């Protein structure tokens, strides 16, 4: 069994620390961090912190892609991450987070469009997915490429893998129609898709469209989830953690992937098992908020939050 992470549109994550963000003013940056990023890779890095092996794939290219690959081989926990990225002719994008007073302002480049040949190469890479492997597909697609998401989901499903998708907008519905096993929207993404703030209605909508399960994150209020029309479960975190929320959603996907790999998707129809996954997701999300950059966790915060709900 292997956990895979797919980051179609990865980025060099650049984090600037400033004492205060003042639009239109010159700032002195007191801390700079440059890391290989993208939501799927953040999932891999969180799992690496827990000493869980993953295979990380997606697309990289250009000089930024070279630096991305170099930094990935140097990052903490890199021995637990097996890179299988597809090389393209397009420059890897950059993402800039400006962190001031425990708030993050994020500037994301869109990324360059990819070709059919690029996605054919990714399909060949994913042909190595084994029966019972878990594949987490996270983040945005470059402009004009979102229609490839259903194909990736179907490729994983045909290989016998369990597919977790963390995306937004129309792609969320397309992933449901393609039969994604778990969708992980946040409450705002779900409301935008259904034109309703009724979470239960939104979850029913995605289940009805073909999703195997839905885990909806509600920020400081925790999660509401249901798998394969099993028991619907709500979990709230035991404490609110101040910090950088950029990687909290990716940390919760890491928890879901680990849970699905350990227990199997069908087991989460039992509310007791699903609750265990969500408790872990809430604890990892809080530990990610406490970390200075996305893709990292503060282990003692994780342990404290996890034990508080034991």
From TrEMBL:
Transmembrane region(s): none
Domain Carbohydrate kinase PfkB: 19-290
Family matches, as SUPFAM superfamilies: Ribokinase-like
EC number assigned by the record: 2.7.1.-
Entries under InterPro entries matching the protein: PfkB_dom (IPR011611), Ribokinase-like (IPR029056), Tagatose/fructose_Pkinase (IPR017583)
Main enzyme class: transferase
Assigned protein family: Belongs to the carbohydrate kinase PfkB family.
Keyword Cell membrane set for record: no
Source domain of life: Bacteria
UniProt-recorded name of the protein: Hexose kinase
NCBIfam families reported for this sequence: 1-PFK
Keywords annotated in UniProt: ATP-binding, Kinase, Nucleotide-binding, Transferase
Molecular function terms from GO: kinase activity
């Amino acid at each position: 069994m292997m956990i895979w992470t797919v980051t179609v549109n990865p980025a060099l994550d650049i984090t600037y620390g400033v004492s205060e963000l003042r639009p239109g003013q010159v700032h002195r940056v007191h801390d700079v961090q440059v890391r290989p990023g993208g939501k799927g890779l953040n999932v891999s890095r969180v799992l690496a912190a827990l000493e869980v092996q993953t295979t990380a794939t997606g697309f990289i290219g250009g000089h930024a892609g070279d630096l991305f690959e170099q930094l990935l081989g140097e990052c903490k926990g890199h021995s637990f991450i097996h890179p299988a990225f597809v090389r393209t002719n397009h420059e890897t994008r950059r993402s800039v987070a400006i962190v001031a007073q425990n708030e993050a302002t994020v500037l994301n480049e869109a990324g360059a469009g990819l070709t059919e040949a690029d996605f054919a190469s990714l399909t060949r890479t994913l042909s190595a997915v084994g029966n019972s492997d878990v594949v987490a597909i996270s983040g945005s697609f470059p402009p004009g490429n979102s229609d490839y998401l259903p194909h990736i989901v179907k490729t994983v499903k045909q290989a016998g893998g369990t597919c977790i998708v963390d995306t937004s907008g129309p792609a969320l519905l397309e992933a449901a129609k393609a039969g994604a096993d778990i969708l992980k929207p946040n409450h705002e993404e779900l409301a935008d898709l259904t034109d309703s703030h009724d979470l239960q209605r939104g979850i029913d909508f995605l289940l009805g469209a073909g999703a195997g399960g839905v885990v909806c994150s509600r920020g400081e209020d925790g999660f509401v989830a249901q798998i394969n029309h099993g028991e619907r479960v709500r979990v709230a975190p035991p404490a609110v953690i101040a910090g950088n929320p950029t990687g909290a959603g990716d940390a919760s996907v890491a928890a879901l992937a680990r849970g699905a790999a350990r227990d199997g998707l069908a087991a989460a129809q039992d509310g007791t098992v699903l609750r265990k996954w969500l408790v872990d997701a809430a604890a990892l999300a809080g530990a990610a908020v406490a970390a200075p950059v996305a893709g990292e966790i503060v282990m003692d915060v994780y342990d404290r939050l996890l034990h508080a709900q034991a």
